[in-house]
């Protein structure tokens, strides 16, 4: 009975390691400073995590297919710049488009999502049709997209100046909230959007034929192809869908910060990949889930925000993050080799 209990505990710990680590991190920081558990701080953690969750969900789907996407961050930056350039107030002195009238809020959002889908489609075609390794393919598109964004950002009359003066209805998406109980509880819009995206991706992964195909390709591409799955179409969809998520995250990032530059999104792809891997997405493909990815993002946000809150040197934060990534990958590979 004792051996059975130990085995059960070990199995539970392995299957829920990501959530145990998250809880221990929060409790450890709260032990140093109990004020960390205030509603305001927890709200800030969720706000800072929201766009990162959306990006990580896009990257996570690609990782499940044994791919990767190094262009994610630059796609976020492009969407932030394009949306911000179209959403400035009429009174702002340095408008990107001086003669552009007020346009409906949905126009730049849909335009950016469309651009993201096109860029993702391009990535998917390179990977699936030209058989270029995802690392190299998206490394190339990362550089291309940054160049495109920088050229757009440098056009007259902006001349590479930070884009500001954004309309209140636009920034409300990133800073507004739904209040309840006479204002005692407020739920930020950006958190609700991230939650909606997480639910959408969960449904895609778990309740659709496309989701089953994604996992099948990650498990064994050859077997998936033999079983009748259109691997090319599935990969193009995964990269295109991820591009749409990156674009939405870029729009929300511009709304949250109230501006944009061509350097927005820099290195976001590495954080997203790290969060997905730490959240249980296997580097060997075919394994991963939405709750784990969300928890992975929260872990890194807690590290950044929480350790800063208790006064830990930022360089130590990088060391802690690096150790977590290394041990998460080692743990994943150990499970893989045990199965083999």
| Largest beta sheet: strand ordering | 1-2
**Global Rg:** 21 Å
Shape: globular
Strand content: under 5%
User: Largest sheet, if any?
Assistant: 2 strands, antiparallel
Which percent range fits the helix content? over 70%
What is the overall number of helices? 14
The domain tally reads 1
Going by helix content, strand content and strand pairing, the class is: mainly alpha
CATH class assignment: Mainly Alpha
Which fold name corresponds to the CATH topology? Answer: ABC transporter involved in vitamin B12 uptake, BtuC
Mean pLDDT figure: 90
Number of E strands: 2
pLDDT < 50 runs, ≥5 residues: none
Distance between the termini: 29 Å
* H/E element order: HHHHHHHEEHHHHHHH
Provide a short characterization of the protein structure.
With 340 residues, the chain is mainly alpha-helical.
Can you offer a commentary on this structure?
- By secondary structure, the protein is mainly alpha-helical.
- The chain has a single domain, classed as ABC transporter involved in vitamin B12 uptake, BtuC.
- 71% of the residues lie in helices and 2% in strands.
- The chain has helices at residues 2-15, 17-32, 39-64, 72-86, 106-128, 134-153, 168-175, 189-207, 209-219, 221-226, 231-257, 268-278, 290-309, 314-339, and strands at residues 177-180, 185-188.
- Helix 3 (39-64) runs parallel beside helix 8, helix 5 (106-128) runs antiparallel to helix 6 and helix 12 (268-278) crosses helix 13 (290-309).
